[in-house]
Amino acid sequence: MACVPLASIILTSTIAACSNSVTPALPSDVQPTATAAVSTAEPVATEPTGSAQPDDQNQQMYAAFGDALENLLQNRMLPDGIPSDDQDSTVASRFAVYDVDGDGQDELILLNNTVTMAGTSGYVFDYEEGTEGLQTELLEYTDLTLYDNGMVKAGWSHNQGLAGDHFWPYNLLQYDASIDCYRPYYSVDAWDKAYGETNEQGQPFPTEIDKSGAGIVYYIMQGMDFDYSSPVDQSEYTAWLNQQIGSAKELQLQYFDLTEENVALLKSMS
Question: Cα(174)–Cα(246) distance, rounded to whole angstroms?
Answer without folding.
Answer: 13
